[in-house]
Amino acid sequence: MIGLKVFDETDYQAFIDWQQEATEKDLFSFMGRTFTLPVTKAQLAVYVEKAKQQALPVELYTVIEEQTGEKIGHIQVAEIDEVNQSAFLNRIFIRKASRGKGYGRLLMEEMKRYVFQERGFHRLSLYVLSNNQGAYKMYQKAGFVEEGVMRESRIFNGEFLDLHLMSLLSTDH
To answer: What is the total count of domains within the chain?
Structure first.
């Protein structure tokens, strides 16, 4: 089982530690151009401050493995739109040591519970890059449906990547 806690300064070191083995490609797939390696506490402070300044609310969470209490990941719930009853998932990350153990699936289930049951929203969306097929398949298994592709809309190391828009409605499950 997993839990969520609001991301704050007590989570910075775990976040930095997760990125120790990351490549630029790993970081780009997870955060776009938000950070550069090595990730620092100063970069994280700017990230948190920018989240507070968005027109539509943004919530940052650390993912916790409940049995051990270990911090295993991060997620951002963004563009929280009360009027249109929708939210966007961004910055979805499970640390390397915890991958392949079903935590991504559990995190998606928790996000569906939070957005649809707790918040009472109707729509949950996310983007995934074309070079992240593992995440794409996991989102499909969680019930997300591809709505469209922004062809060659991101560039990384001279290669253009497609960005897939996926969504899930409260009535889909």
So the answer is: 1
